Design the sequence.
């Protein structure tokens, strides 16, 4: 009997349509437009359903990736939603901002021969289908209440994930959020054109539908301390307060008018809706020439926001080369396409002001790369006699963040590092303080959304084990 010929592998992924760079540079609409139904099926068909499933191990929240892709291929969208949401409460967010290229897609078996499966794009398609069909949580059956109460402080990705998992296990969960909108960094830190606010709020609504109570405008450490909560009937607490304290250059002129931290700049743009001016008259000064210091995703977000707010020229000033830049490749590519000017191997020396105290220029040094440092990247060193001046009138400092000290400073018995991060077990999230867990950026310092979600998920499992054994 003649054997059937093996079907040829499709080594080319289906590209996602995007707004034209010349158009999108002047609006806040989403840049990536998402797959159509036809595109999603075409991409899902590329998955070879390999038995070893390395993509699942590469996912920080262990989504059953081959199974949800198989459901997409078979047009069983409700099943695809259920598979995704059984492990990931925030698929619409992850499908947009998770760095799949260094996680699940990096270990995809197909990637050994060609382009890996576009797992993130398919995840986004499934989440958006779910939102469009309004069937969220329809098939979620919650267990009987356990009678246990948990307080989650912070409604960012770590807190929301922890809250959702604990609610699905039958616990009563209250999330305390300091700001007037839930979502944490997902709302105040990531621009509308990369992560629409309605997507974040739809996922918050899904978590509420699981029975989670979200309390806004609740600055814990001021309104109540961790010990107050422990003494008022909560059986356990999860700290997911993130890392919202900006780091600066510590150079002359950093206190001039026209110098922003990226935190302030993006919060004004995102949460205070400066991008909807004049409907929302949020005060934010944008000059003609803007310099953004840093090379991460936050720097790209800040630069692209400045461009959309009307700056004539926007520079990314980064002390290393393109190869060492920590931003996602697609975000740097999007910024470059939109006209952002990259000044590599450049480091600010001082910011120069005018007679009224406003930024007018920035003196910089040219750099060259030396030996690798602790991060594994080559250390930048100053090139002798290389000083030069850039004419700029706004400077945004995007060098990273550390945790706000409010919770640690008001919580007895909580260990913190020199960097201000909370000391917690890497696997369980347990702190040295009884009945208190922590996870996400408050423990690691600024990192990715998905790594924070993974920490929230591990902590939820540990809290459940503790509560049901006590």
Sequence:
């Amino acid at each position: 009997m003649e054997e059937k010929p093996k079907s040829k592998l499709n080594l080319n992924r289906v590209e996602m349509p995007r707004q034209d760079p010349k158009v999108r540079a002047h609006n806040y609409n989403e840049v990536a437009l998402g797959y159509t139904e036809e595109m999603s099926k075409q991409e899902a068909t590329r998955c070879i359903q390999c038995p070893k499933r390395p993509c699942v191990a590469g996912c920080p929240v262990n989504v059953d990736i081959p199974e949800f892709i198989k459901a997409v291929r078979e047009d069983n969208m409700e099943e695809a939603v259920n598979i995704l949401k059984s492990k990931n409460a925030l698929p619409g967010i992850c499908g947009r901002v998770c760095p799949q290229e260094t996680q699940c897609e990096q270990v995809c078996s197909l990637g050994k021969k060609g382009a890996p499966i576009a797992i993130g794009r398919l995840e986004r398609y499934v989440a958006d289908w779910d939102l469009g069909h309004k069937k969220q949580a329809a098939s979620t059956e919650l267990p009987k209440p356990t009678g246990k109460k948990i307080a989650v402080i912070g409604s960012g990705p770590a807190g929301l994930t922890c809250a959702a998992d604990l609610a699905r296990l039958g616990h009563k969960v209250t999330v305390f959020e300091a700001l007037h909108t839930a979502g944490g960094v997902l709302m105040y830190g990531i621009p509308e054109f990369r992560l629409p606010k309605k997507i974040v709020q739809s996922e918050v609504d899904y978590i509420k539908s699981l029975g989670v109570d979200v309390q806004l405008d609740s600055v814990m450490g001021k309104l109540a301390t961790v010990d107050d909560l422990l003494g008022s009937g909560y059986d356990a607490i999860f700290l997911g307060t993130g890392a919202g304290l900006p780091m600066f250059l510590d150079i002359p002129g950093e206190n001039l008018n026209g110098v922003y931290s990226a935190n302030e700049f993006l919060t004004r743009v995102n949460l205070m809706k400066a991008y909807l001016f004049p409907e929302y008259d949020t005060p934010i000064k944008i000059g003609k020439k803007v310099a953004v210091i840093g090379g991460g995703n936050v720097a790209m977000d800040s630069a692209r926001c400045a461009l959309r707010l009307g700056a004539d020229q926007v520079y990314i000033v980064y002390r290393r080369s393109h190869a060492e830049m920590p931003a996602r490749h697609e975000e740097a590519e999007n910024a470059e396409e939109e006209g952002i000017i990259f000044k590599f191997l450049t480091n600010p020396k001082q910011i120069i002001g005018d007679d009224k105290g406003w930024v007018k220029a920035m003196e910089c040094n040219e750099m060259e790369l030396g030996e690798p440092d602790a991060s594994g990247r080559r250390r930048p060193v100053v090139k002798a006699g290389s000083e030069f001046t850039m004419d700029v009138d706004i400077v945004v400092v995007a060098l990273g963040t550390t945790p706000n000290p409010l919770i640690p400073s008001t919580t007895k018995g909580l260990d913190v590092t020199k960097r201000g991060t909370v000391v917690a077990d890497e696997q369980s999230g347990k702190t040295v303080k009884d009945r208190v867990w922590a996870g996400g950026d408050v423990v690691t310092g600024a990192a990715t959304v998905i790594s924070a979600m993974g920490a929230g998920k591990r902590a939820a499992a540990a809290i459940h084990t503790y509560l049901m054994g006590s």
Q: What stands out?
A: The chain has a mean pLDDT of 93. DSSP finds 17 helices and 16 strands in the chain. The CA atoms of residues 428 and 462 lie 6 Å apart. Residues 449-469 form the longest helix (21 residues).
